[in-house]
Design brief:
This protein is of the alpha+beta class. The protein has four helices and ten strands; from the N terminus they run βαβββαβββαββαβ. The strands form three sheets. Strands 1, 2, 3, 4, 5 and 10 form a six-stranded antiparallel sheet that branches. Strands 6-7 form a two-stranded antiparallel ribbon. Strands 8-9 form a two-stranded antiparallel sheet. The N and C termini lie far apart (about 55 Å).
Amino acid sequence: MPTHNSNPSEKNSSVPSNLPKTKDWSKVYIGLGGNIGDVVAAMVEALGSLATNKQIRVVGRSSLYATPPWGDLDQDEFINACALLETTLEASELLIALKVQEKSLKRERTRRWGPRTIDLDILIFEKVEILTPTLEIPHPRITERGFVLMPLNDLNSKIILKDKSISYWLSKTDVTGIRKLEDQSGWISG
């Protein structure tokens, strides 16, 4: 009669030791925003599409915020939010997935900081720092932008950037004109 080995420290001989290690899930904070069309519907669609990828989980959403334009001031206000993802993708692969979503939602890049149907940015990728011509993580302007800091603070006020917490950076940032939307329907439950 076979005996059962209850000592978890001993190797189970039925599991091959040469299998590749499964990539761990990394936490990633992304920013979402836009000011053309039904921005909330576009953000919900983008997150829903991302979640169909077996290597991406959407695990949290901030509140929605109405924000004045930044950089290029001659345009309508934006709707902004942040989401917490978990992924086994590399940062460059996630960036491609985000750009595919932007394209599918008719994002056009006509001018820097200009109007858009959707904008999806990697803000923070757990344990990753990258500086390339196409990708910088953490996002280089997080600590200057109230429209990023407010929703990011909703998700995790204790994130550390440049040796200070998100809540610290938020306390030092101009948030004039940024307001939490009263109507969050279709977003949190979306």
